[in-house]
Amino acid sequence: MSKTSYTDAELQEFEAIILKKMNRAKEDLKILQEQISNGTGSGDGDYKFNGLDDSNAMTEKEQLNQMAARQAKFISHLDKALMRIKNKTYGICRETGNLIDAKRLRAVPHATLSIEAKLIESKRKGRR
């Protein structure tokens, strides 16, 4: 009979990994947000286009905003993973219903698909 869920001890291990990643991600997001708010040049948040420097500053701010948005999304995924741990549904592939390999979860603790399901999804979307 194959295993259908992770034990409480295993879930605690995954929770510790997720919490560590979440704390780091929140620190990184805070740094990005500080860079965004401090990188406005004039200090009042308004850009005054005075040539190439302002254009570069605006591009940099856009990149920082994109990085912050990705970080916030990552934090959201980690938060959802913590909820799955509390619900004891963590580590179950949303496509196959089988357990996601523990090695994958240690590397990508917010994963909701097994490697096999991820490959199928990627092929369906036209990626390799």
What report would you give on this structure?
This protein is an all-alpha fold and 128 residues long. It has a domain at 8-90. The protein has helices spanning 8-38, 52-86, 102-107, 115-124. The longest helix has 35 residues, at 52-86.
CA-to-CA gap between the ends? 33 Å
Number of strands: 0
Integer average pLDDT: 88
| Shape descriptor | elongated
Round the Cα radius of gyration to an integer and report it.
Answer: 20 Å
Main β-sheet description: none
Order of helices and strands: HHHH
Q: Based on helices, strands and strand pairing, what is the structural class? A: mainly alpha
Beta-strand residue percentage: under 5%
Quick rundown:
The chain is an all-alpha fold. It has helices at 8-38, 52-86, 102-107, 115-124.
Provide the fold topology.
Elements: H1 8-38, H2 52-86, H3 102-107, H4 115-124
Features of this protein?
0% strand; 128 residues
